[in-house]
Amino acid sequence: FGQGEGRLRHAARNLGLALLNTLVLSLVFSTLVVLLVDQTQARSWGLLHHLALGTWGAWIIAFLLLDGTMYAWHRANHRIPFLWRFHRVHHSDPHMDVTTATRFHLGEHTGAFLVRCALVVLGGFDVMHLVVYDLSLIVMTHFHHADISLGRFDPLLRLLIVTPDMHKTHHSERQSETDSNYSVVFSVWDRLGRSYVVSRDPRAIR
């Protein structure tokens, strides 16, 4: 889309929504999750407390469980009409760029918070597991929403992680392409879930 004022208005809308969400997420949801983590650690709830994995094993399992759950949650947001009513705010952006990574309805964040609470209890994660994964999630979502091209490196990178061309397909106006590529960090989930699709010409995607 055009440069200058139009791009600034677009960014202001998306970042304004992000600011509102950040205030709620940081002041309410994050506090409640930390309190819940304290309880799970004190009572030894969750999978990691009952497996002799060692420090590195626990980190790997925690990261994979968190990322796999994000894939399942994202897919549910497309498949369940009630959840789609919130998630479509993200997909309603006609000009995808890095600010689109911040464009989410607070209702979707609320649902993700409830999923996170259940996962904390079942998984037995500590706070640092969540912090490291969430930082990775933020970096990756901004990376693969960016309006950039990695050229011949994109097919190589998406063997492991979600890339801009892979995620651009997910934002296509074609329903068959929108309902694909739900992964957030590792791309393997889409291959396992048979939801992996990449357009032959990402530049032609509307």
Brief rundown of the structure:
With 206 residues, the chain is mainly alpha-helical. The protein has helices at 5-43, 54-79, 81-91, 106-123, 127-145, 153-157, 164-170, 175-178, 188-192.
Question: How does this model look, in words?
Answer:
The protein is mostly helical and 206 residues long. Helices cover 65% and strands 0% of the residues. It has 9 helices and no strands. The protein has helices at 5-43, 54-79, 81-91, 106-123, 127-145, 153-157, 164-170, 175-178, 188-192. Helix 2 (54-79) packs across helix 3, helix 2 (54-79) runs antiparallel to helix 4 and helix 2 crosses helix 5. The longest helix has 39 residues, at 5-43. The radius of gyration is 18 Å and the shape is globular. The model has no long low-confidence stretch (mean pLDDT 88).
Pick out its properties.
single chain; 206 residues; mainly alpha; 9 helices; globular
Q: Please give the alpha-carbon distance between the first and last residues.
A: 12 Å
- How much of the residues is beta strand, in percent? under 5%
Give a count of the beta strands, DSSP E runs of length 2 or more. 0
Number of helices: 9
Q: What overall geometry do the principal axes of the alpha carbons give?
A: globular
CA gyration radius, whole angstroms = 18 Å
Summarize the main sheet. none
Helix content: 55-70%
User: How do the helices and strands follow one another from N- to C-terminus?
Assistant: HHHHHHHHH
Mean pLDDT, to the nearest integer, reads 88
Class computed from helices, strands and strand pairing: mainly alpha
Low-confidence stretches: none
